[in-house]
Amino acid sequence: MKELIIIGASGFGREVAWLVERINTVEPTWSLLGFLDDNPEMTGKIVDDYPVLGGCDKAKDYPDAYYVCAIASSGIRKNVIEKLGVVNYATIVDPNILISDKVTIGEGTIICAGTIITVNVSIGSHVIINLNSTIGHDSVIHNFVTLYPSVNVSGITNIGECSEVGTGAQIIQRKKIGSNSIVGSGAVVVRDIPDDCTAAGCPAKVIRKKGVQKVPF
Question: Which stretches of the chain score pLDDT less than 50?
Fold first, then answer.
């Protein structure tokens, strides 16, 4: 089995450890060594039976291990990956998903249980697709995107790098979410969302832009 280390020992990190255990019950694949977490108070603790080995600087001590980053924030996840400087990234896919063989998935991506991904979908690297989400045909999910639980992405949707889509949000077909943007929980996206903003509501409207406190409706 291949050695694996999870970056981030918080709630989602523990969920990813459980996901790895689920994979191993189907086919022994990963020897989970533990977590890396930059919170110094976590070093040496046991989290759901796995040790916190230290901060991300400890990655150099495990050059042959594979890594996966379980930090939900897209921007923080990107920064951690860019600083980590390791070579091997694991792609972690729960055995309880429905996915066609016409889907491409980049390294370091995590796909959680109950997800359905149909045909001709492109998923980038270091993406998180959380529980019970759906992604329709011909959609493109760029690097470092986070889809929180129960997100519905309709066909021919394009979600830009480092964007986050909140729990229960719905995106209708042929829409584009820009890079570095946030779609709020429960939002219904019926028009394109630009870069560097926050959108919320039904239908979703831009309520904040980068560097601006609030955008009036």
Answer: 215-217
CA 148 to chain CA mean position, Å: 8
Q: Which two tokens stand for residue 23?
A: 């994979």
Question: Given 137, 176, 205, 209, which residue is catalytic?
Answer: 137
Q: Could you tell me what percent of the chain has a pLDDT over 90? A: 94
- DSSP string over 103-167: EEE-TT-EE-TT-EE-SSEEE-TT-EE-TT-EE-TT-EE-TT-EE-TT-EE-TT-EE-TT-EE-T
- Cβ neighbours for 199, distance < 8 A, ≥ 6 positions apart: 181, 182, 183, 184, 187, 189, 193, 205, 206, 207
Three-point CA angle 73, 213, 201, nearest 5°: 70
**Residues paired with residue 102 on neighbouring β-strands, in sequence order:** none
Partnered with residue 104 across adjacent β-strands are: 122
pTM of this prediction? 0.95
pLDDT in tens, 53-90: 999 999 999 999 999 999 999 999 999 999 998 779 99
- To the query of whether residue 126 is one of the catalytic residues in this protein, the response is no
Backbone angles phi, psi at 177, to 5 degrees: -100, 125
Sheet holding 164-165, edge to edge: 92-93, 110-111, 128-129, 146-147, 164-165, 182-183, 197-200, 205-209
pLDDT of residue 212: 57
In this prediction, residue 217 carries a pLDDT of 42
For residue 22, the surrounding DSSP H or E stretch is helix 11-26
